[in-house]
């Protein structure tokens, strides 16, 4: 909290963002325009947006029990604080696929960001660049790949010119440029697949991520109620990566003019699952194209599949259940993380996703063996409120939350004290987290 206490360390002083907010309130009366308390933020986003926009990123499969299981799993793991530890200088840095990054947090791939702000994916891509954090672009995005890359570069340029406590230049080794991930929804036309990969690679996306759990959308009653499939509506957004692709447009441009759903139905959520053989083909093509850059498989929920991913040649996996949006009544992702980590040990990079809301959640996933954590709905909720400013506020708040959690809990270094440290946690098999209505009464 003391602005004069600035010991030199490897991480930006994220915790000072709390003081910055307090100072604005005390000196000028300027308060944040929306709450970053996760439940309150979700509720205010619902009021801010129309139902179709809100439910695109917030609908869950079935009764929403998998989404609930994600939060219950975090609730059951409890942090064990340590006393009298010198955390004055903290180290939140980590290395991800050869890139040294200031904190183990990624912007998860979420489609159709134009539902939340007119600039769509350009907003989070720019903020990720400013913060030096990896950004993941979805094939269902609503801005061309090349434009998103330029926005990410623009954000990185702002970071490099800044003299603030948020500046991070990666001087401790590795590449200071944070990795850009391209998240692939792979259709069954290999020529289009290769075109998308080539565009991503040429635009500086040097990690390819294949999603395995969304060949078609899960059964989401809140979307059914609204017939909420934006691609079929006249003012369609979400086709921009397709309409900017020369191969797709050469083959299907005329059809797209008659059927706005052609891109999404043909190349994204096509309803025809692939197999491990096709994954091996894709890995081979990506490795040839990118000179051996990493390939990540997203959607792993079992130790057996994690082992198969390693055997198939994957460099990493994302342990996720698509935030509870695909299979109702499934396991919470954090429930299966320990057994997946045990199964693959240090053979692959493990990224965790699903249900992350707070700095404590990030801490818990790292302690259970994840190398980094993806955050999705939080940044979408922020940008829905105030575009760049809202997205920045939410992500800086999350980073401050993680930094402060480590400070007050007595853990100095992500790599040395938190990662794979089950002694930092205690499991409680009973109890469930209170719902939003109970939070409101507390």
UniProtKB/TrEMBL annotation:
UniProt key word Ribonucleoprotein: no
Listed GO MF terms: FMN binding; oxidoreductase activity
Binding site for glyoxylate: 56, 185, 220, 322, 325
Cofactor(s) the protein needs: FMN
Keywords, sorted A to Z: Flavoprotein, FMN, Oxidoreductase
PROSITE patterns from the UniProt entry: FMN_HYDROXY_ACID_DH_2
Binding site for FMN: 109-111, 138, 183, 211, 298, 353-357, 376-377
Annotated active site: 322 (proton acceptor)
Domain FMN hydroxy acid dehydrogenase positions: 30-427
Family affiliation: Belongs to the FMN-dependent alpha-hydroxy acid dehydrogenase family.
PANTHER family: L-LACTATE DEHYDROGENASE (AFU_ORTHOLOGUE AFUA_4G07050) (PTHR10578:SF75), S -2-HYDROXY-ACID OXIDASE-RELATED (PTHR10578)
Protein name (Swiss-Prot/TrEMBL): FMN hydroxy acid dehydrogenase domain-containing protein
Organism: Fibroporia radiculosa
């Amino acid at each position: 909290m003391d602005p004069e206490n600035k010991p030199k360390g490897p991480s930006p002083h994220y915790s000072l963002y709390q003081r910055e907010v307090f100072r604005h309130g005390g000196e000028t009366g300027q308060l944040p325009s929306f709450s970053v308390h996760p439940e309150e933020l979700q509720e205010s986003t619902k009021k801010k947006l129309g139902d179709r926009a809100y439910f695109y990123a917030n609908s869950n499969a079935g009764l929403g029990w998998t989404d609930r299981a994600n939060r219950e799993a975090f609730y059951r793991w409890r942090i064990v604080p340590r006393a009298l530890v010198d955390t004055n200088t903290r180290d939140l840095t980590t290395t991800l696929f050869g890139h040294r990054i200031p904190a183990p947090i990624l912007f998860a791939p979420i489609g159709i960001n134009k539902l939340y702000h007119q600039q769509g994916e350009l907003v989070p891509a720019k903020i990720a660049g400013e913060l030096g954090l990896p950004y993941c672009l979805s094939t269902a995005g609503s801005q061309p790949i090349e434009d998103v890359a330029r926005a990410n570069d623009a954000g990185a340029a702002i970071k490099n010119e800044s003299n603030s406590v948020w500046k991070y230049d990666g001087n401790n080794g590795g590449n200071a440029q944070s990795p850009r991930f391209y998240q692939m929804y792979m259709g069954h036309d290999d020529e289009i697949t290769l075109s998308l990969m080539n565009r991503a690679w040429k635009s500086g996306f040097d990690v390819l991520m294949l999603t395995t759990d969304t060949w078609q959308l899960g059964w989401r009653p809140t979307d059914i109620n609204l017939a909420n499939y934006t691609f079929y509506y006249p003012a369609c957004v979400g086709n921009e990566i397709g309409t900017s692709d020369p191969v797709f447009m050469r083959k299907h441009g005329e059809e797209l003019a008659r059927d706005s759903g052609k891109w999404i139905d043909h190349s994204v959520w096509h309803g025809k699952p692939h197999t491990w053989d096709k994954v091996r083909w894709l890995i081979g093509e990506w490795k040839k194209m990118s000179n051996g850059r990493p390939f990540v498989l997203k959607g792993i929920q079992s130790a057996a599949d994690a082992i198969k991913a390693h055997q198939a040649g994957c460099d990493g996996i994302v342990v996720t259940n698509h935030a509870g949006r695909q299979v109702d009544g499934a396991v919470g992702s954090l429930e299966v993380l320990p057994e997946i980590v045990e199964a693959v040990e240090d053979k692959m990079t493990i990224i965790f996703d699903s249900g992350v809301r707070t700095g404590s959640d990030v801490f818990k996933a790292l302690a259970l063996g994840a190398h980094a954590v993806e955050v999705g709905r939080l940044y979408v909720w922020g940008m829905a409120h105030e575009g760049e400013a809202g997205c920045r506020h939410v992500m800086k708040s999350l980073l401050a939350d993680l930094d402060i959690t480590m400070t007050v809990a007595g853990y100095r270094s992500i790599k040395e004290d938190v990662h794979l440290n089950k002694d930092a946690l205690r499991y409680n098999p009973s109890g469930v987290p209170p719902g939003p209505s109970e939070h409101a009464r507390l």
